[in-house]
Amino acid sequence: MKFIFADSLDYVDPAFDFIADRSPAERQPYWDDAYPHEILGYAPYDGVLVSRGIIGDHRVKGKYTSSQARRFHLVGARKFLRLDKPQFKDLDIFGDCGAFTYVQEERPPYSATEMAEFYDECGFTHGASVDHIIFDFDPAATGMAGGSDDAKARFDITLENADAFRREALAMDASFKPLGVVQGWSPASMAEAARRLVAMGYDYLALGGMVPLKSPEIKLCLEAIRDVIPSSTRLHILGFAKADDIDGFHGFDIASFDTTSPLIRAFKDAKQNYYLPGDGLALRYFTSIRIPQAIENPKLQRTVKKGIFRAEDLVAMESAALSALRAYDAGGADIDDVLQAILIYSAALVEEKSYAECRDSILLARLAVRYRETLMEKPWKQCGCPICATVGVEVIIFRGSNRNKRRGIHNLAIYHEHIERLDLKRAVHRPYDLSRSLCATKR
Amino acid sequence: MTYLAVCARQSDEHQVLTFAATAGDILRFATIDRIGRSAQGVLSGFQRPQVAAHIREIRDYLEKPNAVLPNPIVVAFIQGVTVEAREEGSARLQIDVSSGAPGLVVDGQQRLSALTELDRDFQVFVSALICRDEAELRRQFVLINNTKPLPKSLIYELLPSVDDLPPRLSRRSAAAEITARLNYENTALKGYIKQHTMPEGSIADTVVQKVVMESLSNGVMRELVRMPKGEDRCVKIVSNFFDAVKRVFPLDWHGHKPATSRLLHGAGIQALGDVMEVLAQRADARSIDDFEEGLACLKGRTAWTSGEWHFGDEVRRWNGLQNINRDVALLKHYLVGVVKADLRRRAKAAPAPLLDGLPDA
């Protein structure tokens, strides 16, 4: 099972100074910063996925600057992502349209021909057909029942595009592997889409629209699809937000999936920000310590504008929390003292009140419990990855892109190992496949 | 706290004095009064919040041993000070800090914030202004902070002659230098660029700088400028490209201004900048002939001076394109699309050279 990382310019500055809290003044982000595979010295994934929508153009606002987008088109994906080194030559580069960026449109902004040319010119190894996301998932609908008019229109658009896309790729003798994207409003409609894609000639399918679905719903879809396609047909899950549940998906013979979740969780999750291997085949999670920049954090700045806090006082609280945490890491402070210093600053952030006014608040109490666990365990000292080994306690601080993304990259490394351990287990026994083949012989 | 100050004769209503102090001392006798409202909605204070990036840039500068900061921090007082006049325009200024800092920082809060982060003994001038009341003080704040910044094009033109600039400006400076050379040396754009000192030029200097800056940061000039005589190569490639543009579109170029031809307009120049990149990077174009060959496919498919642009499902009159991001991007996408399709077609017609003709093959 290949873990493909969905990139959106997720790099960090290797020269970042954590004590002065800044990058060198002459830093040029794209050029001086390091992608995960550069800062770690190895790739914490089996491939990278780049969405056309993330790159952006005059129709879709992407995340790249227009000049970065131009460079991507000119030099191609591998060189742009700096995966053009011998040690990365086997990494896959997947492409898709980034259908979430145009969900509101009636039709996708890209034509099948345009996308095929894009994948081919930019040197992708795999390219997904032009899909259109379908909403209002109904797990119970059977056959082609259910589905709004809009859902059905999108179903047809996705399949028409897939057909044109495959023909186009063949005609241009494209150097990438075309993937047919499955979209549907129910497990049965997805199975029907998959069946038609296989009939068109696809032997690698990508399941779209999985982001909002829960794990059991995704399993229903996979089951329905697996029932109607040959076992040799490979499956990819696009935007697999439930990546932490991946061990529950073993029996479905997933060839690959892409996700950004281990990176994103580092700074978008309320609790589970830092990964470590847990008991058995599980992962263990820790909450990172929120110490945002007093004069850059919008919420804190608002309290200054409203006159609740003085900027100078916030800066003092911030610096007290930072130095207490560093002292604790170095063995020079007591856990209760460091927790106190952090909570004093958290009060301003969470409750917009002074600590004295809200020390008994429920939010602060909850935060204190999670922070205490992180502080007790010192997980950053339990990890030997190049990030934790280099920056130590800074990785656990929720503050600015250089700490948050480093924590995310550490998570990618832990997650990649996690996937590899799962694959090892799978090689020994595959319960689902066994029961499947038994059923087949009974029939 | 006592300072020996110099007085200036300015107004009968105010006293104005100046003296030197460190940032630490200034914050002992003055506070930065940020604007806010009380729970009853009463306005207080006047300063905006700190701007982190601005402070950082000032600090970077001040950390250099040769840094100077001749312009003063302006501190206003309505109470807590006594001025004792001495001979020849000097005075002894006494500030009473026993019940807090009586002064308010009217101008220079970002500089002051940067100075407090600085780990060196650095004195700045303080201009003390003693006002009648709070209203007068706020009036001074508005007046002092409402100055008109210098025009950008004047600053940009001065940049190349200034060294030791912060990186933000030094990148602009490199582009401004190449732009100025394009305008004054024997190039295709000689005399065409409107600069502060070349007001009769027609193409905006900021537009040419944009093209050059983009190329320097993410395009062909990034590599060229690092080679021997790098800057000459950069000037040459732009000049060669625009010579080719003139050859391919003679009637849309000669005798025209941005208002009469989109070829000399901000949108056209920026879009052509992208075409230059495609040809330089994909087809290795460097000479006038190389660029002319690559541009030829655009003949008959442009509407620089009349007619209509056909951008897929969108049709625009020739002058319906403005120098706004969306229009520039639309034109870029169209022109680059035509040029790339042509490159593909020509590569297919002669597949061998592309693979075998590479320099190290």
UniProtKB/TrEMBL annotation, chain A:
The cross-references to SUPFAM superfamilies, in alphabetical order and at most eight, read: tRNA-guanine transglycosylase
Q: Write the protein's name.
A: tRNA-guanine(15) transglycosylase-like domain-containing protein
Q: Which organism is it from?
A: Sphingomonas qomolangmaensis
Q: What is the lineage of its organism?
A: Bacteria, Pseudomonadati, Pseudomonadota, Alphaproteobacteria, Sphingomonadales
TrEMBL record, chain B:
**Parts forming coiled coils:** none
According to UniProt, the name of this protein is: DGQHR domain-containing protein
Pfam families cross-referenced by the UniProt entry: DndB
